[in-house]
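Quick start: read one record
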Amino acid sequence: MSISFLPSGNLTATVLYYFMLSIHEQTKQGKKTRSRILAVLTETDGLTRNELVERSGLTYEQVRRQTRNLHVSGEIESRLVDREQRYFIKSAKMNPSTAIFLSALLIVWMPVLIAPVGEEDVRNNRQNLTSS
């Protein structure tokens, strides 16, 4: 069995990644903490862990653990800015092929979506429903 599909190619790192991700998804308190961190970052993006502690009212340990989980899950990213690790909400970027597919789908369905519905259509639909 090949492990080339694994994120890092390293089985141990991959197992740990999925283990952390499963813990991240399971804890209700963790969800509240992550939500609080995301809310603070939504207000002011690019904060350090210490700034997150000050603004969120969480402990440093909570912020440390959950910024790591949010980073692992891809919801935030960390960057080194002026020798300080800062956290940013990850911007959602659409894959170009997905954008092309969605555009084509919209073009195909546009006539159906904007087709006018007349009284005759409504009457026929009602008759079909009552005769069934």
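The mean pLDDT is 79.
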